[in-house]
Amino acid sequence: MSKKTFFIFIIVTVLQMASNNMNAQNIISADNPYIQYYGRWDFTNPLSPAYSWPGVYLYAEFEGTSIGIRTADNFNYFNIYIDGELKGIFHGNKSGINNYTLFDGLPDGQHSIMLLKRNETWTKFSFSGLILDEGKNLLPPPEKKKRKIEFIGDSFTSASGNEYPYQDSPPDVEKYTNVAEGFGPLIADHYEAQFMMSSISGFGMVLDWEGKKINSIPNVYDRTLNVAEYPKWDFSKWIPNLVVIGLGLNDYSGFGGWNGAITEENRQLYIAEYHKFLGRLLDLYPGVKILAVAAQVVWIQDAVKEIVSEENEAGNKNIFYADYPYYTGGYVNNGHPNIDTHHKIAERLISSIDKINAWESYTDSIAPQITKIAPSGFTVYDKNYELKVETDTYASLRYSTSDKAYGDMENQFTITGKRKHSTNINCEHGSEYNLFIRGIDTYGNAMDSSAVIKFKVDTTKILLNWKSLNYNESNWKKGLTPIGNSVTGINTTLAKVTTGYFRKKIIIDNSASIVGIGILIKGSDGAIVYLNGNEIQRINIASDKGAEYSTLADVPKTNNQMIVLNSINGLNYLIEGENILAVEMHHSHGNEFISFDSRMYDSNNKQYYKLGDEWKYYDLGDMPAEQIGDKATDIQDEENIQSNYQLKPNYPNPFNPDTIIEYSIGKDSLVTLKVFDILGREVVSLVNEMKNAGNYSIKFDASKRQLNSGVYFCQFISGSYTAIQKMVFLK
């Protein structure tokens, strides 16, 4: 990649030629194996892979005198490298899929093309193939470079507007952005390394430059396309040797640093989230080296130094610190580094990278630690107990009824391989259990002592949480909605809490006549709604956040949202007679106040309660405590009920490529049947619909999913019944 500066206004338009200017053509489809892709590409449609992150690029070698492109992109700018030299800039000017000439007039022979996306974008576009001379083809490319670097950051990392010659911001900053002349690709070019750009202007480690917490790099880091929640990026596809992080400028802005001192609470929040993100990277990329880079702001430099020091003291010796100063006169585009400054930053960071032996994999000798587990001595009130454990790093867990070395333990956790682990224990009424648990991490370090968990089983009782129908709410407060704090016009005052809890009992006379229910949720900032203990929907709270008292809503938001219950969204949880509707409201980082109001009516236009109605509520600054109650039926009745639900062993097992899964349900209910891999990642959802009582079977064909040989798990849920079956796929 040439480091020579090309100003966009000289060459940007000379390459916009429609396909009818080309001679006879040979169109090469985007799924051709001789095209090498770099960065995050979405191959959901392999004939038109999509992209949105900055700095994605592709490489191919070809025969002939010209090279063209088929693309549905009339927004982005691309550097065109022919035979390793920058020859021009491509910018599509037509909507829909079109053919364009990139370069022609080459000597007839073998050439190479690298096409690199220069700028950021806020929507996705796609590439549909290359265009060669008639009779010409792609040639096998050379082996990819061995070294790999990922750059995680903000507009500085994205090289926003670095070719713009003035101090103000251009209306079309994309036109003047050339990520290839940013410090990231310059560093990669120096080390002859592949690179990936995981950077977004305005985003930070905790929040964005305006103070919005939802706009943080950790919140979008698992996306294949930065503009879309799905598909998720498969981190196993590309594991870097080195990760360079440059986040903090937008946090500094969002915390109000340019207008005054940042509170110690916000400083500690930045440090905590940084540590959390570092742990995530260490888990995703075994053996990686991480360079935590601080920009010129003293607050950022001091905080990042502290973070790296704490990581090193904790045993993570593969995390390193670097910074760079303010370069007087070296900024354009409203304070962003120009090309000269990017070269200076690159040179400074290269000197730091040279000292850390970035290309030799790091290996630690620290065994994983169990950080969260239920305290011993508790009682289980169900025959199927889900044991949940968390570790301080990615690990695989096993357990046994006696204390043994990890390799000698007989039982593997069903969901394991990351930080959160779970497995189902089939329990007998009246029995006591002592389980010993050990783990091993991705470096092969095994725990040399066991965590021990002890519990007894009493299936004559039931554990009730605050969302349960029979939960005793007599000590809760009651009041008319709206309920909230420090909000004008609120009927009932709520204590200043992170999360408030609300319950309302509803009588349903004829549930069979109801085909839908509407529940209006008003208030701030985020909500989780439950019917008879079952989660129905979330508002402004991500599904992977859990539902703890300390959970924050994604952003400050005033809600006025209708939740619809129907045959595919929770209506099956409705029962004849008394039902309980439960709602928890969470405030956000930017708003410490909660408000709540609601109304409900059904498809027959019957109103069950109106806005301003009375609710029970809990605002004591924690989650309501669980209660123990008597079951409505005895043990034998419970066994009879459970026997009507069954997930049978799949057959054949092991299988190749397909197997039959059979299950039974005791009454009409919503059924989900999913397959997970050994790391707990969902492979496929086989069933997710209402089913009548009866026996069912379904075929699972592994060949349609391009799965590797190994262990998979089938999870069956119907009502309150859950079962998991292990399946072995052997090619």
What structural class do the secondary elements suggest? mainly beta
Shape: globular
Q: Residue share in helices?
A: 10-25%
What would the average pLDDT be, to the nearest integer? Answer: 90
**Low-pLDDT residue intervals, each spanning 5 or more residues:** 1-22, 633-643
Total helical segments: 8
CATH topology value of the largest domain: Rossmann fold
Compute the number of structural domains: 5
Tell me the β content. Answer: 35-45%
In CATH, the homologous superfamily of the largest domain goes by the name SGNH hydrolase
Compact summary:
The chain is mainly beta and 731 residues long. It folds into five domains: 8-139, Sandwich (Jelly Rolls), CATH 2.60.120; 148-353, Rossmann fold, CATH 3.40.50; 370-455, Immunoglobulin-like; 477-630, Jelly Rolls; 644-729, Immunoglobulin-like.
Q: Can you describe what's shown?
A:
- The protein has 731 residues and is mainly beta.
- It has five domains: 8-139, Galactose-binding domain-like (Jelly Rolls, Sandwich), CATH 2.60.120.260; 148-353, Rossmann fold, CATH 3.40.50.1110; 370-455, Immunoglobulin-like, CATH 2.60.40; 477-630, Jelly Rolls (Sandwich), CATH 2.60.120; 644-729, Sandwich (Immunoglobulin-like).
- 11% of the residues lie in helices and 38% in strands.
- The protein contains eight helices and 48 strands.
- The strands form eleven sheets. Strands 1, 2, 4, 6, 9 and 11 form a six-stranded antiparallel sheet that branches. Strands 3, 5, 7, 8, 10 and 12 form a six-stranded antiparallel sheet that branches.
- The longest helix is centred in the middle third of the chain and has 21 residues, at 264-284.
- The two termini are 43 Å apart.
- Mean pLDDT is 90; it is low at 1-22 and 633-643.
